[in-house]
Design a protein that fits this description.
Helices cover 73% and strands 0% of the residues. The relative contact order is 0.14. The protein contains 7 helices and no strands. By secondary structure, it is mainly α. The model has no long low-confidence stretch (mean pLDDT 92). Helix 3 packs antiparallel against helix 7 and helix 4 packs antiparallel against helix 5.
Length: 196
């Protein structure tokens, strides 16, 4: 039975060049084409994704805005970040408490249940284990909320500034890696074409 790579060869015939280029799709260099039709043209040159380059531009713009803030603007920014962080942890805490309540209600029902046979006893144990595993440990969320409340407003600004600087470094490195990957892929496909 032919594979996706040999179907055209078996059904219609193929040149060596067509067959080798079709099989080349199985390699990492052409990973982005794995879902393309087998007869889709393989490009001579690959272009880097603009994701990291765009993120780099956005992040540099954010850094400019953060650095240009006055003392009052930094406080307003920090206050907004703090409020968002507090609300996020309050929401998590509320959701987790509701989920724990549902789990505890179900655990009470499971404990009351009398398994019909000895063979069902393990099912009851398993159900209680699953409930226990699923219970949220609220200490982490409560502690995170406490920290969010106690953190000074300016620290939210400083944290955003630091994170933005780190993101610029990350996007710069990842953009260069993307360019290097694309150049290697282009070189690989060019050398393959030269060999046939």
């Amino acid at each position: 039975m032919p594979t996706g790579y040999t179907a055209t060869l078996v059904e219609k015939g193929q040149t060596f060049q067509e067959f080798i280029m079709g099989c080349a799709r199985a390699f990492d260099v052409l990973i982005e084409m794995r879902d393309s039709p087998i007869d889709a043209k393989i490009p001579d040159k690959f272009e880097p994704s603009n994701y990291y380059a765009e993120k780099l531009v956005e992040t540099k713009e954010k850094l400019k805005l953060l650095k240009a803030m006055t003392g009052d603007e930094k406080e307003i920014f920090g206050d907004s970040k703090k409020e968002t962080e507090i609300k996020r942890y309050e929401k998590y805490l509320e959701e987790y408490m509701q989920q724990n309540s549902r789990l505890l209600d179900m655990a009470a029902q499971v404990r009351k249940w009398n398994p019909p046979t000895k063979d069902h006893i393990e099912l009851k144990k398993f159900m209680l284990q699953q409930i226990d595993i699923s219970m949220h440990k609220l200490e982490y969320t409560k502690n995170s909320l406490k920290i969010a409340i106690e953190t000074p407003i300016i620290e939210y600004y400083n944290s955003s500034l630091s994170e933005t600087i780190q993101n610029i470094q990350y996007y710069t490195e990842e953009n260069q890696k993307e360019i290097d990957r694309v150049n290697k892929r282009t070189e690989w496909i060019q050398k393959l074409r030269e060999s046939i």
